[in-house]
Amino acid sequence: MIGSSMSLFPRKLCAEWRKRGIDVTLFTGVTGGPRQLPDGTPVVEPLYHRKTKPWQDKLQERAATCDEWIARRHFARYKSRTGIEQPSPWEWQFYANFSQAFPIARAIRAFRPDFVFAQEVFSYGFAAACCGSIPKFLFPWGADVFWCPELSPLISLMVRSALWRAKLIMPTSHYGVDHIAKRFGISCKKLRAISWGADLTLFKPADADRRKQICANWNIPPEATILLNVRRLRKQWGSLDVFEAFLRLARENSTTHFVMLGGEGTESAAAECREKARAAGVADRFTIIDGAISIEQVADLMGISAIYTSVMGSGDMRSLSVVQAAAGGGAPLLGEHPEYANMQQQGFRTLFAQRNNPDSIYTTIRRYLDDEPLRRETVRNNLAYVAKYEDERTQMDLLLETILQQLERSDRMNISPPARLSPACPAV
């Protein structure tokens, strides 16, 4: 597997595959990280001992400057296609991802795995593409195929090359399948939407005693109606618009409490939100989290929340956070998005708000607060939906079985029979 050793997603998938008898090794562009994941998966850092010469360091600096220059010339295109005013610097780092691909690919070819599964196409898809004849499977995250390619023709070409060379591309959403097929000219035969689902043993509504304990841990009044924003505290993800709506509600409704998840690199945004809450005299009504927290803590907060929000725009797939929060027993308020409309066809229920519109978010939240039967029916319906369509155990089986079926068709299957799963999963 190729991915960040610091990210939840590669860690999660490595653990799930090892449970199912697959021998996994994680290759990463991270340096100085863990040599082994908590589940025992070995981590290989091909860049760790890589020595560069002064001219190479200077080339990297100039390439980074060039990447930014190219991106700025494409800001208008980026805005028109994504609806986002300003990208983050990591979105245009072509040279860093391009140059790391070759040492990672060399290390993987020497390792001679049965197949390669790369997570995040912009960062690691090209490394997979350079792995020669080894079968390649890609997991797009969202921004890697929706946002980053709009900032540079070099990024677009690199992402397209990675997608073309993949045996199968496995986004979590049908919307992602449609976008990749149209934007990059990929055959639908190479695309399969598979949601990862939610761990229903971890993400579940908290009972009364557990709720009191969780609220005490976070200094939240247990009798409050808790609203949780489940996405990172970043403007591009719609979270600052949610905060503005929360702030307005806090002034009007004294029985509510608001939780804003942070995420890696969000400390400055969290400080700004905290200062606004203090200025409005409602600081005690907000729990604004600095940086990242554990998945268990996230599950706790989802398990006590009455309403949860996610209004991310064009870069969204079928968000794992949205599914997990539904399993936790919250009523969803989501930004208008084709994937969630598709989920509604299977029975998922939600209220939609306009993206980039705090007033719309505020008005929609009020519908839930003013109509408790609606909220309770939505939660009850979605708990049944998640149990039927989004059980992590079933989805992880489906993901791995789909890969193994592809390997069998290409006569590349060297994994021992005891590692196999039930053949009940549908063929691609």
Features:
428 residues; alpha/beta; Rossmann fold; 2 domains; three-stranded parallel beta sheet; 48% helix; disordered C terminus
Topology:
Blueprint: H1 8-19, E1 26-27, E2 43-44, H2 54-73, H3 75-82, H4 94-111, E3 116-119, H5 121-129, E4 136-139, H6 143-146, H7 153-165, E5 168-169, H8 174-184, H9 208-218, E6 225-229, H10 239-252, E7 256-260, H11 267-279, E8 286-288, H12 295-303, E9 307-310, H13 320-327, E10 331-335, H14 338-344, E11 351-353, H15 358-370, H16 372-389, H17 392-409
Parallel strand pairs: 1-2, 3-4, 4-5, 6-7, 6-9, 7-8, 9-10, 10-11
Description:
- The protein is α/β, with parallel strands linked by helices and 428 residues long.
- It folds into two domains: 216 residues, Glycogen Phosphorylase B (Rossmann fold, 3-Layer(aba) Sandwich), CATH 3.40.50; 182 residues, 3-Layer(aba) Sandwich (Rossmann fold), CATH 3.40.50.2000.
- The chain has 17 helices and eleven strands.
- The strands form three sheets. Strands 8-7-6-9-10-11 form a six-stranded parallel sheet. A three-stranded parallel sheet has the order 3-4-5, with helices on one face.
- Helix 4 crosses helix 5, helix 5 crosses helix 7 and helix 10 crosses helix 15.
- The longest helix is centred in the N-terminal third of the chain and has 20 residues.
- The protein is globular and about 60 Å long.
- The two termini are 21 Å apart.
- The C terminus is likely disordered.
